[in-house]
Design goal:
globular; 6 helices; Zincin-like; binds zinc ion
């Protein structure tokens, strides 16, 4: 089970429940863009899922697109009128993405929720380091973005690994392994074999948000669902659930879209 990014909006119920394997739709006649305003068209990525009960919309921050998941029986044409009623929501979400932090010299990005200024030091010996709320980056300017991302990803591996071990020891819930990934839509997930995946982008979020996400995925080791028993366990493991959900709803998509 997974913790979806909060830029998700389920609605429009499907009528029937025909079972088909989840797949990405490639229907020639399906509209591939939605026009939000004159001269403002956004790509649509269609997906079909036999498990989906309703049409759901999600913003794909890396592709700057709308992902639409359709329940088995519905076609893109069926969903299009509904999608058009959601133009305002899509526009608002995409506008939030444009405020996403950028990994460029002179820009500020959060680490642990605290703003850090990216400072280019072309002649420095060591690659990337953090000092006094600044991220120093050596080397040529064109690689600053990649070097900062690589640095944060490694930093995330260390910090999230440590925090996961601490919470696992305290709770007795032990994952079989931790994968640090870059996903455009999810902060974390937990497989039935006990593998936990966390997004490296969590390193940009405040510690309380990381604590909640880790508790959420650990709780899935006992409950592979979002039942009341699951949420009761989450609340036992962390005091931060509601504040963290609220924080992710408002700031999450900017972090997922940071590049
Ligand atoms: Zn979950």
């Amino acid at each position: 089970m997974s913790a979806p990014a909060r830029a998700e909006k389920p609605t429009l119920l499907s009528q029937r429940g025909v079972s088909t394997a989840p797949r990405i739709l490639t229907v020639d006649s399906a509209p591939d863009v939605i026009e939000l305003a004159p001269d403002c068209r956004v790509p649509i990525l269609w997906k079909q899922s036999s498990r989906a009960r309703r049409v759901s919309l999600r913003i794909d921050p890396l592709r700057q697109a709308v992902t639409v998941t359709l329940p088995g029986p519905l076609t893109p044409q069926d969903a299009m009128p509904f999608l058009k009623t959601q133009r305002h929501w899509i526009t608002k979400r995409l506008a939030a993405l444009h405020n996403a932090p950028a990994f460029l010299a002179g820009r500020t990005i959060p680490v642990g929720g605290i703003p850090h200024l990216i400072v280019h030091q072309p002649a420095a010996r060591s690659g990337v380091w953090i000092e006094a709320q600044q991220i120093f980056v050596s080397g040529t300017e064109e690689f600053i973005g990649r070097r900062v991302r690589d640095f944060l990803r490694n930093h995330a591996r260390t910090v999230l690994g440590q925090e996961l071990r601490t919470q696992a020891q305290a709770t007795g819930l032990r994952p079989t392994r931790l994968d640090i990934r870059d996903t455009s839509s999810r902060w974390g997930s937990c497989s039935s074999s006990g593998r936990i995946m966390l997004s490296w982008r969590l390193i940009m979020a405040p510690a309380s948000v990381r604590h909640y996400l880790i508790a959420h995925e650990l709780a899935h080791l006992r409950h592979m669902n979002h039942s009341p028993a699951f949420w009761a366990l989450v609340d036992q493991l962390t005091p931060h659930r509601h504040a963290a959900e609220h924080w992710l709803k408002h700031h999450g998509s900017a972090l997922l879209g940071a590049r």
